[in-house]
């Protein structure tokens, strides 16, 4: 059985035209950042609420090392976002991937489409996606 870990595909929230990175945990107006810890275990939940109607924000997908097979942390992916798209203000894990060394290391488990190109087909079950006209979806892909 192959072990799979989250990291490869990241969803990056961009603040178009920002002049510098915000210091953690400061966020620009239009974003609410929260974190909760559960004392019963090593659990922490981080949430980001974004006013999507604000034109200065956009969601952008990335791929580790800009290739199908490869590993890269979410912060590394966020640093590679082209400056023309804006300054990243948040980034999250977007999928599970193959961690074991070998020819398939970094292979995504689920659906990923970047720039209209199919990178990885669905592994079954539900998927999260951003339609080309900006609508968010969560559900089965058929």
Structural class: mainly beta
Radius of gyration: 16 Å
Please, how many helices? 1
* Strand order of the biggest β-sheet: 5-2-6
Distance between the termini: 26 Å
- Average of the residue pLDDT scores: 77
SSE order, as H and E? EEEEEHEEEEEE
How many DSSP-defined strands?
11
Largest sheet: 3 strands, antiparallel
What proportion strand? 35-45%
Helix content: under 10%
What is the 3D form? Answer: globular
Unreliable stretches (pLDDT < 50, length at least 5) are: 1-11, 15-23
Description:
It contains 1 helix and 11 strands. The protein has 142 residues and is mainly beta. Strands 5-2-6 form a 3-stranded antiparallel beta sheet. The protein has a two-stranded antiparallel ribbon with strand order 1-7.
